[in-house]
Structures are given as C-alpha cells and as structure tokens.
Amino acid sequence: MEARELTLRYGTKTAISKISLAILERQVTALIGPSGCGKSTFLRTLNRMNDLIPGTNHTGTILLDSMDIYDRSVDVVDLRRRVGMVFQKSNPFPKSIFENVAYGLRVGGMKDKNELNTRVEKSLRGAALWDEVKDRLNESALGLSGGQQQRLCIARAMAVEPEVLLMDEPASALDPIATAKIEELIHELKAQYTIAIVTHNMQQAARVSDRTAFFYMGELVECGPTEQIFTNPREKRTEDYVTGKFG
Amino acid sequence: MTHASRRAVGLALTSLTGLAAFLMVAMLALILLDVIANGASHVTWTFLSQPPSDGMMGGGIFPAIIGTAALTLLMTLAVMPVGVLTAVYLHEYAPPNSRFARWVRVAVVNLAGVPSIVFGLFGLGFFILFVGKGMDRMLGHEELYWAQPGILWASLTLAVLTLPVVIVSTEEALRAVPMDHRTASLALGATQSQTLARVVLPGALPGILTGAVLAISRGAGEVAPILFTGAAYFLPDLPSRLNSQFMHLGYHTYVLATQSPDVEATRPLLYATVLVLLLLTFALNLVAVIIRTRTRRKAAGAH
Amino acid sequence: MDRQAVMQQGLAETIPVPRLSPEARRRQLREKAIAGFITLMAFTGIAALVLILVFVAKEALALFTEAEARHEASLSKMFLPQVVRQNRPPAFVWQPVSGVPKVSMIPLFIGTLKTTAVSMLVAVPVGVFGALYAAEFAPRRLRELLKPVIELLAGIPSVVLGFFALMVMATFLQDTLGLNTRLNAVVAGLGLALAIVPVIFTVAEDSLTAVPRSYREASLALGATPWETAWKVVLPAAAPGILAACVLGFGRAIGETMIILMASGNAAIVSANLGDSVRSLSATIAAEMGEVVVGSTHYSLLFFIGVQLFLFTFVLNMLASTWTKRVVKKLTGSAS
Ligand SMILES: Nc1ncnc2c1ncn2[C@@H]1O[C@H](COP(=O)(O)OP(=O)(O)O)[C@@H](O)[C@H]1O
Ligand SMILES: [Mg+2]
C-alpha cells in the first residue's frame, strides 16, 4: 500500500502535505514524530476513516494493489474490510467477547454458526487472547482489563482477515506488561499482515518495526529501514528526534 | 450595609426560595393525599372490571381502562418509528450545518408548544374530514365509516402531539452512545445502517424506552385532543375496530366532574377514576425517571 | 526516488480501473435508500406543523370567503363593540348560538388574559424562586430529590389538575376569599399555575445551572455572600433563559384547555373582577365544538380561534427559543 503526494486539509488547515510513503507488504512500518505532526491523520486516510470528519479534503493518491482507494470504483466498505484499524483507545462494543470478535464477520454477511466459531477462535488465538477468555466468551467485553480489551480490538480487526492492519498508538494507554504483550503480538502478526503502527515511543518503534517513517509538522522527513533511521539517519531533524533532543 | 443586615437579607431570600420549592412539593403532596384519601377505598376489583352503570352513578371504569390502553398502544405504534427515525436523522444522518435539519428542529420545538386543543381541531379537520372522507370516497363507503371520530384518528392525533417527546429523548439517547463505537463499527467494514442497527440503536435503547414511556404517560393523560376525535361519553362496548369510539379515563374524569346530575353521588367514582389515572401516569413517569437516571449515571461513569 | 515514483505511477495508470462490483453497488443503493427513507421520516415534524396550520385554517376560511359567514361574523363583529340591544351602549358579547349570533372574541380574550395573568402571577415567582433554590441553595441530596418531584408534578394530566381545582381549590378559595361564584378566574388561574410551574421551573433551572461555576467563584472570591452571588451574578447571567421560561409558561397557559374548561365557570363575562366567571379561547373550542354543525359559521369561528391560539403560541415559542439560544451563546462565548 502506498501514498503519493498525499495532502490532507481539515478545512483550510493543512494537516499533512505531500506525503509519499510505501507501506511494504508483510513488514511493520512505524510512524514516529512529535505529537500533532499528522501521523494519525495519515493513518486514517489509508482506510478513509477521514471521510467521517466533515470538512476534510485531500489531494494526491493512495494505492492499494495499484488501485486508487479514492476511485469511484472502490467501495469504502470493501476497502475497510481490506484495511483494518486499531485505535489508540480500546473501544470494544458493549457486547459479549464473542460478539465483539464476530462483529465484522456478521456485518460482512457470515451467518453459519460453525464458521463463526472457527473464525472467532482463530482470531482470538491470533491475538494471544484465547487462553484468557475461552471460558467466558459470552461475558461482556467491558469486564476485560485494559490490555485484554486492546488485544480484543486487535482480534476483532483480524477476524475479517484484512490485508493491512493500521494501529494508532495501540499501546499508549497500557501498562508495560500489557504493552510487551502487544509488541510480541505485532511481531507475530507480520508474518501474515502488512502493518503500519503509529507510536510516540521510540524504543517501541525500534523493537517492533522493520521500517520507520519520521513525520515532522505534516511532512515526511525521512523513511528507511528502522536500523538506519535510528543509527544513521540522513536528516539532522531525524537524528535530533530519535536521540531525544526534542519531541 | 452592615454585616448583620446583609446576613438577615440573605437568610430571608434563601428562605423565600426554599419556600417556593417547598410550595411546589406541598401542592403535589396535597393533590396526592386528597386523591388517595378520597379514592383509595373505592378502587376495588369490581370497579376496575365493570362498565359504568345506573347512568354513570355506579359500576366501574373497565371500558375506560381498556380504551385508554388501546388508544395509547396505537399511538405508540405510530409515534415511535417516526420519532426515533427523525432523531436518527438529526443526530446520525444530517450533514453538518444542514439547513433541513435546522428546519426540522425548529418545527419540533414549535410542535411541542402547540396547544393540545389545537391538536384536537387538527385531528378533526385533517384526519376525520380530510383523510377519513377521502378514504370513504375511495373505498366506496356509502355511509360514514372512516369520516367519523374513532380510536385510530384519536391515536394518530396523539401521536403527532407526542412526536416531540420521542424525538427529544431519542436524540439525547443517541448523544450518549460513544462516538468510538460508531468509528469501531465503520472501521470493521460495517455500513452506516448496519452501525445504526447493531451498535447505535442498541446502545440508545434505554433512552429510547424512556422516550416511549414519557410519550405514553403524556398521551394517556391528554383529553383535549380526543374530545372531538373519538372519545365517547358512555360506551359499555370495548373498541373493536379502528373506527370505534372509545371510553377514556381522562375524558371520563371530565364527564364525571362536570356533567353529573348528582355531584355527591358520583364523587367516590370520580375520585377513584382520578386515582387510577394518576397511578397510571405516575407509574409510567417513575419508570422513565428511573431508566433515565440509571443510564445517565452509567454514561457519566463511562467517561 | 522521484523518478521511481513517476515510473510506478506510469505503471499504475496502465492497469484498467475495475468497475464497482455488483455487490458493492447493491450495498450502496441500499444505504442510499435507507438514508432517503430516514430523511423522509424527518420531514414528518415539519409536515405536521404545516398541516396543523393549513387544516385548522382551512376550516376557518369560510369566515372570509362565504358571503353569509362574512356577514354573520365580520372582523368588526369579532373585534369591535357592537350594539346588541337597542338603546344600550355598544358592547362585546359572545353568544354564537342565538337568533342573532353575537360573535365578539373580546370576552374570550379577556377570559384568557385573566386566567393567564393569575397563573403567571403565582407561577413565575414560585417557579423562578424554586429554580433558584434548586440551583443555588439546596443541598445536593435535596436537589436530586426536588427535580424528579417536579417532573412528577409536570406529569399530572391537566384533566386531573382541573378536577382538583374544581373539587378542592374552588370550595377552599370561595370560603377564604368570600367570592360570589365558586368557579372563576382565580380558581382557574391557580389551577393553571399548577400546570405551568413545572415548565417555568425546569427551563429556569436549566439556564441557571448553565451559568459557569467560574462566575460564582469570582463573585464569592470578591467577598459576596452566596445570596448576593445568586441575586446579582447568576440571575442576571441567566436572565434570557429565565425570560424564556416565563414565555414558555405563558404560552402553555394560553393554550391550556381542560383546567380552565373545568374550573373557570365558562361564562363569557366582560369585567375586571377576577372573582367573576370567565370563558377562555381554548375552553370555548372544547365546550362548543361538540354541538356545532359542521360547516356552519359557528364551526368556522371555533377553528378561527384555533388559528389564533396556534399563532400566539408559535410566536411565543420562537421568542423563547431565541432567548434560550442567546443565553447559551452568551455563556459559552464569554466563558471560553
Ligand atoms: N478532526 C480534526 N479537525 C481539525 N484538525 C485536526 C483534526 N484532527 C487532527 N487535526 C489537526 O491535524 C494535525 C495533525 O494531527 P494528528 O494527525 O492527530 O497528529 P498526531 O497523530 O501526529 O499527533 C494537528 O495539528 C491537529 O490539530
Ligand atoms: Mg495521534
């Protein structure tokens, strides 16, 4: 998946300008940068969640399998099933654990009970949550701990088997142990998924990602292998940021 | 002003406002006590299960209870879908700064202020004389069938009257559903209508029920709109068709209180009727208040 | 980097863009249909308001179009004094069912005004002071009790309030005030007050609690006592909202029917005495519509009264909502 010359404005305020960035297949791309630099905006554009915010407009293109996702021939519902999203604040529905994970499948038209069971179990296993919740699938998801809720949201997003998974600071509200679990999970997921993750935590970016993109004031300053960004950045601003001189 | 006089004025003002608040509570208590004291002993099973007899000087109020229930049931069936969907439009579908939505809001606010007797005129002029007459002509009824007062027209009139109640409570309920739930649903590839049906409306259900209960309680007590649209003075038969006239607790109260040949003789019946009507509306209101405070507390706890 | 991007772009453009899949198209159509249906439903509120005016006015129209009705009930006969009996000064009389129908609306206006005035005189101080108490002085527990209680009071059907005014208040007031008639403007007005106090209380309380806490804190910090703060800071800040509350109560009082029908005595007397029986606009419709011949002049007159009630309350409502908006704007505008 790839953005080209992507500019997005909220009304007249430009949030990101002329971003060209590829999210490579089966790799984890980390988006880093100081708060307010447009990381979330960029991420939301990738599955057109920005459509929901009134007054946004964009120029440039975003390609998924060489298809412009803003083209009239692309249905936004289909797109979001292919490009899933996990939010900063875990947001499970006030439904049972099972129903949360099955939600995307049900709205996609899956009715067969066995198939649903299989897919829910697979996703929960995939999100390393199965063992913790298998005995209480019918209890409310709101009874889970914060970390479990976030993993449930990941499982919920995975259940529809998207090709790309977007994560916006998925661990920022969690304690270190829950964070470690999520990071471990991301590591395993990249075998199957293309992942873009926003994080404000440099160590986290270094630990989980293959490639890192540094955003600054709505622009993409630099993008490259994580190794290189952290040890040998080309740009001075990147170096200042990753070494903690500002941010 | 000296310190002492400032304190004295303050005390006087505070007690004056307290007195005003007390007065309101006291009036409510007075009404309740009076109605209970004079009515309670006459609310018996016979009273509840028998039609009036002896030229309204005896018997019970069974047809009025059934009539009120049937009337409000029909009203609820009519008002809920329209009211809920209007609120859904205003809160979920209307584009931001939509002029149409603004017009709808203005209309709803003004609808809430239209006097109930004007709704009665409207029911007569529109439903009976226009829609009913048109139906009779189209369906080839020789005699008046739809173009006469009946329970359907009365309930539709009440539905228009209670529309603002339902819209306002539903919109409040929709506002209480966290935005996050909508985003999560859409991000999973649900369409807007699926999000509405599976996430938003279930989340708003308690508030929507509150609206329904409030509308029912309002509708059950209104008399002016049904005076010329279907309420019957005395009718031992229960309403069996949509164009039947019906007895009604509120209208029965009015009739007993103002048109009785012997006030003293009907007094116990009157009090008992009022007690039943009050219990009904209070029970409904209480249910609404309980659901609402509970959901408000829950909403407050969730943030 | 740039060249590579251009190359890729060139490649992408050679791939033919597929059409929207039939399934997606069906889904989009369904969503459009649902959205259209919901929008249509939202139209009901507007339609209802317009239809009310149109159909109530339609039945009143004969007064202005038909020669006989125009003669029997011309505007001057409705609103100017008429010579009712020879050798008597012209007067206002409402007597639509008689050999020569007398159709002056003035007695009905006076009846409505008298009952409304009595009710406002009582309900405004009680409602506003009660709201002030609830918003400013009441301990929290008491306030949380007070609001549901007022909601219950608001939930009492007006026919029950009318019954209470008729059965209990009328006798009590006649005994204490020594009035000639049992049913009169005072009884009806006090019964009416029971109906509009909750309206005034609720709206006033809402606008009082909308006053930001910072206002109060600033005033208290300057050494003002709580009542001075309430009186000189909070009340003025919420003034438009309180005015709106009173206007809403006023509108409700003008239109209220059952209480007045039951407790006012229903005699269309022109007098300044509050102890006389009165007949209001709304009660006239309620009392006379049952016996009237559809299509007659009298029938049209009753609908014409309905049009007037509709217009009065409409104007009052618009005023009230403008003022409530103003208080919200003022408070949020200056508080941020
Ligand atoms: N819904 C919105 N409306 C208007 N401006 C927004 C909105 N969301 C974000 N912005 C603005 O866009 C810029 C980028 O925000 P965001 O993408 O959230 O940054 P980040 O995620 O990197 O912290 C910020 O200046 C922010 O104020
Ligand atoms: Mg962000």
TrEMBL record, chain A:
- Predominantly, its location class is membrane
Cellular component per GO, a single term: plasma membrane
Query: Molecular function terms in GO for this entry?
Result: ATP binding; ATP hydrolysis activity; phosphate transmembrane transporter activity
The record's subcellular location field reads: Cell inner membrane
Indicate the segments forming the ABC transporter domain, all copies. 1-242
Query: Which terms under GO biological process does the entry name?
Result: phosphate ion transmembrane transport
| Pfam family of the protein (one) | ABC_tran
Keyword Nuclease on entry? no
Q: Which domain of life is it from?
A: Bacteria
Q: Identify its membrane topology class.
A: Peripheral membrane protein
User: Which UniProt keywords are given for this protein, alphabetically ordered?
Assistant: ATP-binding, Cell membrane, Membrane, Nucleotide-binding, Phosphate transport, Translocase, Transport
For this protein, the record's InterPro entries field holds: AAA+_ATPase, ABC_transporter-like_ATP-bd, ABC_transporter-like_CS, P-loop_NTPase, PstB-like
User: Is Lipoprotein given among the entry's keywords?
Assistant: no
Q: What does this protein do?
A: Part of the ABC transporter complex PstSACB involved in phosphate import. Responsible for energy coupling to the transport system.
Protein name per the record: Phosphate ABC transporter ATP-binding protein
| Organism annotation | Pyxidicoccus fallax
UniProtKB/TrEMBL annotation, chain B:
Q: Which GO BP annotation is one of this protein's?
A: phosphate ion transmembrane transport
> Which UniProt keywords are given for this protein, alphabetically ordered?
Cell membrane, Membrane, Transmembrane, Transmembrane helix, Transport
Q: Which residues cross the membrane?
A: 12-40, 60-91, 103-131, 151-174, 195-216, 269-291
Its membrane topology, per UniProt?
Multi-pass membrane protein
Keyword field contains Kinase: no
Q: Where is the ABC transmembrane type-1 domain?
A: 65-288
Query: Under which name does UniProt file this protein?
Result: Phosphate transport system permease protein PstA
Q: Which organism is it from?
A: Pyxidicoccus fallax
Taxonomic lineage = Bacteria, Pseudomonadati, Myxococcota, Myxococcia, Myxococcales
From TrEMBL, chain C:
Q: Which ranges carry the ABC transmembrane type-1 domain? A: 109-320
Function, as annotated: Part of the binding-protein-dependent transport system for phosphate; probably responsible for the translocation of the substrate across the membrane.
Biological processes annotated in GO: phosphate ion transport
Q: Which domain of life is it from?
A: Bacteria
Please state what the protein is called. Answer: Phosphate transport system permease protein
Topological category with respect to the lipid bilayer: Multi-pass membrane protein
Answer whether the UniProt record assigns the keyword Membrane to this protein.
yes
One GO CC term, this protein: plasma membrane
Sequence similarity: Belongs to the binding-protein-dependent transport system permease family. CysTW subfamily.
Question: Could you tell me where this protein is found in the cell?
Answer: Cell membrane
Q: Which organism is it from?
A: Pyxidicoccus fallax
Q: Which UniProt keywords apply?
A: Cell membrane, Membrane, Phosphate transport, Transmembrane, Transmembrane helix, Transport
**Record keywords: Cytoplasm included?**
no
